[in-house]
Design goal:
Pathway: Cofactor biosynthesis; adenosylcobalamin biosynthesis; adenosylcobalamin from cob(II)yrinate a,c-diamide: step 6/7; Cofactor biosynthesis; adenosylcobalamin biosynthesis; adenosylcobalamin from cob(II)yrinate a,c-diamide: step 5/7. The chain is α/β, with parallel strands linked by helices. Helices cover 40% and strands 23% of the residues.
Length: 176
């Protein structure tokens, strides 16, 4: 099993880079775990854009805004989680949020990662804009930062994508 954390800013190319890495790691069927609920025309357009970008790459899509049962993921397969920040928001802002959302997600991702041959986790780099936020948004950023640190500690490979280029922060790019 390998765990890869891929971060980057909005429009950085992180999703396309992660998809291409998944294709290189597994030329066969791959699972694309989409966590964004379709909310409104802008969300629907974003989802349609992502579907078009991965068309023909061999992905089966699991649209699941929460943690799925491990049995829903292919044993020994390649799974691309798109994305961790949406998954966190879906839990944090649910009617019954977990007491510690970061710990909840880390515990929930453990059996999923153990089931996969490759788990690629895409997340947003949202920490460097310097804008003051309301307390609710600051709490979200605190939980996301905790998730990034914990996953980076567990990951075999950590990459930040900038302008479509991978900056390796931990590990080495696979030779595929």
């Amino acid at each position: 099993m390998s765990l890869t954390l891929i971060t980057g800013g909005s429009g950085s190319g992180k999703s396309a880079w992660a998809e291409n890495l998944a294709v290189a790691l597994c030329p066969g069927e791959k699972l694309y775990w989409a966590t964004m609920p379709p909310g409104g025309p802008e969300g629907a357009a974003r989802i349609a854009r992502h579907r078009a970008l991965r068309s023909g790459k061999g992905f089966r899509t699991l649209e699941c805004p929460q943690l799925p049962p491990a049995a829903d993921l292919p044993a020994g397969g390649t799974v691309l989680l798109e994305d961790l920040s949406n998954l966190l928001a879906n839990h944090l802002f649910s009617p019954h949020p977990p007491q510690d959302p970061a710990a909840f997600l880390l515990e929930g991702l453990r059996p999923l990662a153990a089931r996969c041959g490759h788990l690629l986790v895409v997340s947003n780099e949202v920490f460097s804009d310097g804008i003051p936020y309301d307390p609710e948004t600051r709490a979200f950023l605190t939980h996301l930062g905790a998730l990034h640190r914990a996953l980076a500690g567990q990951a075999d490979l950590v990459v930040e994508v900038v302008c479509g280029l991978p900056l390796v922060l931990k590990g080495a790019l696979p030779h595929v």
